[in-house]
Hints:
The structure holds 2 protein chains of 2 kinds. By secondary structure, chain A is an all-alpha fold. In chain A, 76% of the residues lie in helices and 0% in strands. Chain A is globular, with a radius of gyration of 19 Å. The two termini of chain A are 23 Å apart. Chain B has helices at residues 42-49, 67-75, 93-104, 111-117, 133-144, 163-178, 190-196, 214-220, 232-241, 260-269, 284-293; strands at residues 2-13, 16-27, 31-35, 57-62, 65-66, 78-81, 151-155, 182-186, 199-204, 207-213, 222-228, 246-249, 252-255, 276-281. Chain B is elongated, with a radius of gyration of 23 Å. Chain B starts with a strand and ends with a helix. The chains are: A mainly alpha, B alpha/beta. At the A-B interface, helix 1 and helix 5 of A face helix 2 and helix 3 of B.
Amino acid sequence: MIGLIKAELIKTFKRRTFWVLTIVLVLLTGFLAGIFYLLPRVIDDQGGFFEIQKPGAYIFGAGQVMGQTWFPLILATMALAGELATSAWSTTLTRNSRRGQHLVTRLLTSTSAAWLAVLLAIAVFSVATFFLAEGTGELDAVGWWDIAWKALLVQFTWVALGLAFSAWLRSVGPAIGAALAFSFVEGLLILWEGFREVSLSIHTSALLGSLSVGGFGQILGDLPSFRRGLIVVLGWSVVGVLISWAGLKLRDA
Amino acid sequence: MDAIVAEGLRKRYRKTVALDGLSFTFPAGRVSGFLGPNGAGKTTTFRSLLGLTKPDAGSMEVLGMSVRDRLPEIVKRLGAIVEEPGLVKGLSGRDNLVVAARTLGRGHERIDDLLEFSGLGSEGGRRIDGYSKGMRQRLALAASLLGDPELLILDEPLDGLDPAGQAQIKDSLRELANQGKTVIVSSHNLSDVEAMADHVVVINKGRLLAAGDLAPLLGSFRSGYTVEIDEPETAAAVLTEAGIAAVVEGNLLAVSTDDGAAIARALAAAEMFPRQLARRSGRLEELFLSLTEGDR
């Protein structure tokens, strides 16, 4: 399996796709930071909605970056769907006919790649926070470690979901389209009280505590606890892995 | 031992019968051609041998091992190009071989040699997006040789290559057979197969039409006589009137009958005497067309 991981790392980091997506993510992050920190300076009356102060602003920024779920979704779907659409996947499978190892390899490599990119984007937002946010105080090492491991878990969850769409749809375009549609609809469904109990978006925010900053927490009321957030996010990652496995096994037949 | 033994293969895709009780063998240590018109079942057969498709019925043994039971062991000992090569766009030729070697779990030490073998030594650092079709085909062949396989299964390996590239690949395949490897090639270019293969299997509509060593097959395929004669057009008219089909080919007559005596009698009756009357040794293309057109 080490060989498979090394092969996937080459495919991920030596191709332009990952770097182009990362640049887009970083630029988008910079744009968001500009919106949140510079816009209030030109809008007189925003009712405290944009009062994002340090040190909570660092967590808020991390939450904004982790909310860019398109990144791990596209990365994961392109990693797998492209090979599933041709005989490359089936040929690879017969060369090393252990489907589980292939799935684990793609989970690990796509998650690692997404995590690195997200950490870079969080760093960009954090630099903007340092210079532009109101208030005082910085995060300590524990606080940064907190952000880092939560970012890893969130990326793993969305990568698993992206692989799930690839495993069933077996073509890059439809898989990306369906994955992004899912992300969009999932975000809309938080307006329905019944869905909030299992919403990945809300529980990611609960995990991070990012919506407690500024006025955004007013939108949804009380957030679930950290513990519940962790359980629900883990639950979604398990769902993604299981659907991926089922899709590969059933549609490979 | 035969490299491949297949018996009673059947495969249906909804209403389409791809394989219809196909049985054949390929001998070990030789270059064999696998021939058939479009839709004959060649690719389905290759995919079945590689475990990419499961036949509905029948058995297959590759290198003495059952495909159904021992596929992981089999694939370690064979290399293949079936349908599109499965190369990774965005990576260089060298990186493609590195990825293939990592996935295979071996072959890293052969990458440089295989790049040279495939004529891509100076292009290995370039992304394959800029490769011609022939270059990608040669890289795919190099990738199929990474594991130093005993058996090579190649679906249209000469497709897209210029004449120099084709000659290089044909020489390489013959060299691999001289090393004791078994090479099975499917191709629409029958002259190429005739030049490099010494055993053929011909199929159509998922069934076996002919199989065997090439020389005896071509020798036993009677396709008439060649007549060298003055005034071939007149001679053709004489033979046609006598009920013997004859076609002028340049300065010669191609006569479609196995009865040489009848040709001589008909021409002698018209006081025409050929300089030479010789059996036509069948070409693979003629054999192929004869078999497949007769199977329509």
